[in-house]
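Appendix B, Record 12. Input sequence as logged:
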Amino acid sequence: MSTIQVKDDNGVRIITFNRPDKRNALNLQMYTRLTEYLIQGESDNEIRAFMFRGQAECFTSGNDVADFLKNSNLGVDHPAFRFLFCLLDLKKPVVAAVTGSAVGIGTTLLLHCDLVYADASAKFQLPFVRLALVPEAGASMLLPQIVGPVKAAELIMLGESFNAAAAHSYGLINDVIDSDDIFQFALHKAKLLAQQPPISLQATKRLMRYNREEVRTQMKKELAEFATRLASDEAKSRFAAFLKK
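Logged structural output:
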């Protein structure tokens, strides 16, 4: 069974996190597949939009910590960060349907999506500081721009979980959708995007994300600090406790 499932539907590439026994925790192989499917879809003129989803119980619980620590030599070629930089560079629009846990990268990847919908079961969390790390995916820049610096400090520095209603009020998601309808609703929106004039749509996305190079620079700064923090005694202690638990 593939841990990343892909289906193309009327111009939309649907990418499903499919590791429910591990709460869709992302390992290095999954990151590699995600990047490959995005690159393929970006070069395919029949694909006009992307959609991320998980199962009803979980979007993704973040990194598979044990697997991530096996390749802790972080840099721009690390599978997780290759995926994040690929997401940053996508020209085509991205929709996300969030159900259940969206932890760590499960929340930060949403900052690079153009439309995000969640159901009432969705729980978002940015636990980086709790793990003695720092944010990634440009979250240290993008989150303050979206929710304001005061709320961003609360969400990142305390790392407490928050629900879909809160995420909607902060402007992190477009709407809260009934659980029975969430996947079809998000897919419908993705198909509407796929029906738009593609060159105009991509140009509009490029104009709206005018600070992409600034975000790239910030992501590289985060990566350097993340690597330093990951190697620290502070982080090793936190991860040891996490894995033991």
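Residues 212-230 form the longest helix (19 residues).
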